[in-house]
Inverse folding.
């Protein structure tokens, strides 16, 4: 029996949890919905690529079109609901399946269970949604404007923009993931808080500057490489600089996970009452 | 921590309430090595007591220590404890071997250690042939055994088994009981809940009788039975050739409370308070040679009788 209560044991345990949960996140019965969700924007853009007559040069509007597409569909809908499904099921799914007790009956600190499950969720969502982000951007540019798109990406701002979109996707998975993990852990019906957050994120453009900052989307929007107009009735607020928004998001995530780690130590397994 | 409490499971004034509903109340127990059975009707508090021991539930009041370890430290507790719960559910899509192996890895064992321990556990519960099949295709008895294998895989000192014989066919039941006895002989603490009294009777060193969340009796079955002598005199069946004559003679003994001739007229049921004294006087009657006694056997000193007296009547 491993007796060393040290970092290497914890790392081994977290790795074991991540490996175990990754398999189930990707190949379990619940993965199908996430795949369908992830395929949606790709399928849509493939359809557009097939129907669009195309042109010789990359239009200056294309980066804006992708920014709108990314912001409204990929970030606010696909990543949001994808993360909701993946992270809520990390614990809620185990409770529904009545298998959470196997983790709790293992010789492992419960905080490490939270850490391992969270990391498996982050890896799953990042792999899926960065793929969606990259493929969708390439689908917007390349089908009809191949050579000018190559120039846009390798001699112009394209690659830099792509890196930022991928960064935003990763941060969204980290931030939303932490929120949904906690919701899945402690709320019996997690759909309600998810919808509340969804509504809050959507009305963010109407909120006064101070309230805007109590949201994930505000920090993510601050990082968007091609800013888009939020409409005539939007309340304009200065975007938060990247050097603040990225650490702020990570710090809030760490605090949320710390809260989850604290709470899980006192958590009881009573499937009958769930 | 005293040496004794490092070798026992100690409940000190433990209560558990689910809101306003009582789980168990004011339980003070000390469980030593060997087989201890928790017995009681549905809702008596058996599973609550087991879940409290494993830290799946937290006591509303009181403290629990398993071999000196508090139940809120799973990283220490589950090096010593294995729990085979009643939940017939598993993480999806796993084979029996993967299931055991995965949770050994999560407990911190290396891949090699986990492989070896999983193999050993599967052999022990006689499931090696089906080890690489999906659990979803297992029979109920096989699922029960794979859970048992998972509970024993890390060689715990304490094994808690909630209705472990459910769903097993008679042959496997007998093998499983023999396995439990072997564990007990190896010095393990086995805490078993079961509602099949004759099986509990057969394998237990001690019983804890629970009813409505309270411990109504605990100890060796004989000890518990003897403590009930005043309210429930011991009943014996004396097989003999002249039961009516024997009845007339033994009624002179003040320890005899009641005597009744068996329906087949070849035996006598006797209720008595002080069995040892009674047997001495019975020897004298037999020595006179007027009555031929074939056998004397207690009929209500088993767990079923104790259960009936303490719980069944309520």
């Amino acid at each position: 029996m491993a007796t060393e209560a040290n970092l290497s044991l914890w790392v081994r345990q977290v790795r074991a949890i991540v490996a175990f949960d990754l398999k189930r996140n990707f190949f379990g019965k619940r993965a199908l919905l996430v795949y369908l969700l992830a395929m949606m924007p790709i399928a849509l853009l493939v359809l557009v690529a097939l129907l669009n007559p195309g042109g010789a040069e990359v239009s200056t509007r294309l980066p804006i079109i992708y920014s709108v597409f990314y912001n409204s569909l990929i970030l606010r809908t696909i990543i949001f609901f994808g993360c909701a499904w993946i992270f809520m099921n990390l614990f809620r799914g185990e409770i529904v399946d009545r298998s959470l007790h196997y983790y709790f009956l293992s010789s492992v600190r419960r905080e490490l269970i939270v850490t391992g499950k969270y990391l498996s969720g982050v890896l799953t969502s990042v792999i899926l949604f960065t793929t969606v982000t990259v493929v969708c951007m390439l689908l917007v540019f390349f089908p009809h404007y191949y050579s000018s798109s190559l120039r846009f990406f390798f001699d112009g701002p394209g690659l830099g923009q792509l890196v930022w979109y991928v960064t935003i996707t990763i941060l969204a998975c980290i931030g939303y993931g932490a929120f949904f993990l906690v919701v899945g852990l402690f709320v019996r019906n997690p759909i309600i808080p998810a919808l509340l957050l969804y509504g809050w994120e959507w009305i963010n453009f109407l909120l006064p500057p101070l309230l805007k900052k109590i949201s994930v989307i505000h920090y993510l929007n601050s990082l968007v490489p091609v800013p888009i107009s939020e409409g005539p009735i939007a309340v304009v607020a200065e975007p938060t600089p990247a050097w603040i928004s990225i650490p702020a998001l990570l710090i809030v995530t760490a605090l949320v996970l710390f809260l989850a780690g604290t709470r899980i130590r006192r958590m009881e397994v009573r499937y009958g009452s769930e | 921590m005293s040496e004794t409490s490092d070798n026992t499971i100690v409940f000190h004034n433990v209560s558990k309430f689910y809101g306003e509903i009582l789980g168990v109340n004011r339980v003070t127990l000390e469980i030593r090595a060997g087989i201890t059975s928790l017995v009681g009707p549905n809702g008596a508090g058996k599973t609550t007591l087991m879940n409290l021991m494993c830290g799946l539930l937290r006591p509303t009041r009181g403290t629990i220590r398993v071999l000196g370890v508090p139940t809120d430290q799973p990283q220490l507790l589950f090096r010593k404890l294995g729990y085979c719960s009643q939940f017939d559910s598993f993480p999806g899509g796993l084979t029996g071997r993967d299931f055991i192996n995965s949770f050994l890895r999560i407990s911190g064992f290396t891949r090699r250690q986990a492989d070896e321990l999983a193999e050993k556990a599967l052999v022990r519960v006689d499931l090696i042939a089906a080890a690489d099949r999906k659990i979803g295709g297992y029979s109920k008895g096989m699922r029960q055994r794979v859970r048992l294998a998972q509970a024993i895989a890390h060689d715990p000192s304490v094994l808690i088994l909630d209705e472990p014989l459910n769903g097993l066919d008679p042959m496997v039941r007998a093998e499983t009981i023999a396995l439990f006895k072997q564990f007990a002989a190896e010095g393990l603490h086995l805490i078993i809940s079961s509602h099949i009294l004759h099986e509990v009777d057969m394998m237990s060193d001690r019983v804890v009788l629970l009813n409505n969340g309270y411990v109504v009796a605990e100890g060796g079955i004989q000890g518990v039975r003897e403590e009930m002598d005043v309210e429930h005199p011991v009943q014996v069946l004396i097989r003999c050739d002249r039961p009516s004559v024997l009845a007339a003679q033994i009624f002179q003994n003040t320890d005899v409370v009641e005597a009744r001739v068996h329906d087949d007229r070849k035996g006598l049921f006797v209720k008595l308070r002080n069995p040892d004294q009674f047997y001495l006087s019975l020897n004298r009657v037999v020595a006179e040679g007027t009555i031929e006694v074939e056998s004397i056997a207690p009929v209500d000193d088993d767990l079923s009788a104790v259960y009936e007296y303490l719980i069944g009547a309520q």
About this structure: Chain A touches chain B at residues 1-3, 5, 9, 12-13, 16-17, 19-20, 23-24, 27-29, 94, 97-99, 101-110, 116, 265-266, 268-271, 273 (CB under 8 Å).
